[in-house]
Amino acid sequence: MRFVLPAALALATITAPAIAQTGTPGAAVASRVVAGTYAVDPAHTQVTWSLNHMGFSMLEGQFGASEGTLTLDPAKPQNAKVDVTFKIDDLSVTAAPFANHLKSKDFFDAATYPTARFVSTGVKVMGNKAVITGNLTIKDQTKPVTLNATFFGAGTNPMSKKLNIGFRATAKIKRSDFGVGAYVPVVGDDVDLTINAAFTAQ
């Protein structure tokens, strides 16, 4: 019996995908990016929101992307297009009752407005950074939003063997602009967004 665990570990080592141990496969190397349309990676794309909760503490939660694309050409990065949709019902916070409250008619009304969407309208590139302007739609309210983005990395994913591209971005919005302004000003109206966006070659 004492040989069961070592044997299992050996088998796992043989059958698991081979991943190099010499460092991360992705890096912020622009030459790795090739022209094309990439699909959003729902498992590794998150929008984290943060706001002031009654002056007592900061409050955070997350949305994950459900679908979307990034189209870009390294020779013409200013022509890049981003279109990403988020499922409101999949929002994440630390307590289920609070999540249900956020999904209720008091806030997002997820039953009536099940998704949010960001569609870019312009990109200004400065080295590994970019200012991305676009329209954010929540509860059928569409407002312009500016993302300050940084190219995080690109490379071949050792699991899927496909080219992956990632970005990190920040933005600021007012939740009342999107019909989610319950309890303002007791609960803060200003929302800080941090976006980790991952895309994979199709």
TrEMBL record:
Pfam families: YceI (PF04264). Keywords: Signal. Residues 1-20 form the signal peptide. Residues 37-200 form the Lipid/polyisoprenoid-binding YceI-like domain. The keyword Signal applies. SMART domains: YceI. It comes from the Bacteria. This is Lipid/polyisoprenoid-binding YceI-like domain-containing protein. It comes from Sphingomonas yabuuchiae.
